Amino acid sequence: MEENTGVGIRVAAGIFLTIMLITIVVIITISSQDAAKQGQTKMAAITTQLSDTEYQTYSNTTLSGSQVLNAVRQYMNQEQFGVQVITGKQRLSGNDDKKKGVFYGNTFDASGEVSKISKNTSLTNAEKQSEDAYINPSGKFRSSIVRDKNNMIRGIIFEQE
Hints:
The chain is α+β, with helices and mostly antiparallel strands. It is 47% helix and 17% strand. The protein has a five-stranded mixed sheet.
């Protein structure tokens, strides 16, 4: 009878220890999943910041016309991205279309939606002094960034001061 009692106690202790071990493993797994989710969220935020870093130079800054021309050359061939340049001549003219300036690359609207029409990759008018779209290399331009509904940068606007 004493042997049965000892065996019963050992079996009960084994079951109790097994249940405790399983509980500990479940708790550790759940807490590590939460930590992994937080880590993924932080990594996504860091990735977004890093991808936006190259455009932060153009966030509410004043640039020369030569810097604007360089930016246009750099970004006009990117997918789902455009550069809008509004020169002083275009802003002062009475024509509403000219006030909108010239888009290089894709066109976009104020909400950051990129249109699917053909890209403008020609700088001919931007380099001719007689054109309204002429970007004066010594002119001063105010820049701003345009984001879409997903907070992705879709364009840069340069407006001559």
